[in-house]
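Entry 12.
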Amino acid sequence: MSATSKLLMISMVIAATLLYSVVERRKIEALQTRSLDPILKTMPEIEILDVYQDIPLNQASILKEGERGVFVHIWGTWCAPCEAELPDFVDFAAKFENQGVRFVLLAVNDEYDKVKSFVETRLKRIPENITIALDAEGKTMIPFGTVKVPETYLFGSDLKTLTKFVGPQDWRLAGFVERTNRLLRESRK
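Predicted 3D structure (tokens):
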């Protein structure tokens, strides 16, 4: 192969790489300018059972007086990624125990005894800001728009949706605490 052919080949590879990077950059810019408004604007009406107090909960009774916001974490004992993620999520919740943030661990399509057994055997300590809840028939998944678990929502004190986390997360990362505090602070303005 001659030097000219090699130079032409290298030029073509560089041109193709530059073109590809421009196309990919435009895709990223389009994603960044897209509206960040969540589809689910507010917490939907729900009817669930508090597993430990054996009382029904609904949208109005989940958030306690003076709390800044509430996480609703949808999971199931039958879901391996949920089982793996839940202890870290509980540790994450503990960081907000005295900060006015409620956490509802909502087991869906599950059984009362299985949920209780899982919590008692797999979780070290349940912080006071956590409510273990059950929707045995999975009816809450439809109004939340949840198709696959785990899925986590953060709602402000007015029960407006602040963010949604799809799939398992690494709740040990410090960024989650910072992001939660920022979102809750901004929602009160």
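Annotation: Helices lie at 3-33, 59-62, 80-94, 112-122, 141-144, 174-187. Strands lie at 47-50, 55-58, 69-75, 101-108, 130-135, 151-156, 161-166.
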